[in-house]
Task: structure prediction
Amino acid sequence: MTLAAMAPTEFIVGCAIMGLLVGSFLNVVIHRLPRMMEQEWNANCAEVRGEPAPDDDRITLSRPRSRCPHCGHQITAIENVPIVSYLMLKGRCSHCKARISLRYPATEVLTALLSGFAAYHFGPGWTAIASLVFIWTLLALTFIDLDTQLLPDALTLPLLWAGLLVNLGATHVDLRSAVIGAVAGYLTLWSVYWLFKLATGKEGMGFGDFKLLAAIGAWLGWQQLPLTILLSSVVGAIIGLALIVIAKRGREIPMPFGPYLAIAGMIALFWGKELTQTYLGLLG
Result:
């Protein structure tokens, strides 16, 4: 049975379940990828200095097996079932009873909800499947940037190239709009970065932000870039004010821009054309 022949309800449920499983894997990516990058940097620095490589065990996305960060208890398969295991364990390690971060089930639920909504929004077909890849990668980048203020090339660059490949068949936009979107997305924030640095002597954002906006442009086309930048600024202002007022976060503490771009990119994916038409209509 082809994707287009699937019943909409079956497709939505299937994508939501797939999102739940992928959300569990995203937790691994979010936790381990920055540490893998740190190990690679340390090894490169040691090589430049002519020193032997560090002796620490190499971390990959598959090794070592997941363990409790408090007691080192190895997580069994039955303890690693998305959502179900967290509820059965009552949010605590089965060995030392230390509390398990709510981030893990929250990421799984959020991934499942967004995956199911993408299936509902686009309907059975490859457009929805491609959009899931876009959404999953943006989620991983969001949480990594929140934790480390890093947007790894290992995610942003494949996302950019995937956007161009997906639009070879004009899945979201035609290829010409996708290529221009990738170039314009990168150059827009690159220009803002240098103008801000020349004016203040400070770096207002990282190079990962340029690549992320380029990837969004590759997926959604140059037409959605103004809306994405506007939405990211609005989302950033709202969340920033909430953190300052509610969480008493100091204004001097830097906040990553990647999550705001990612949220704006997802909004543009679902409602970009309608919002752009409404915006242009208001302008007359």
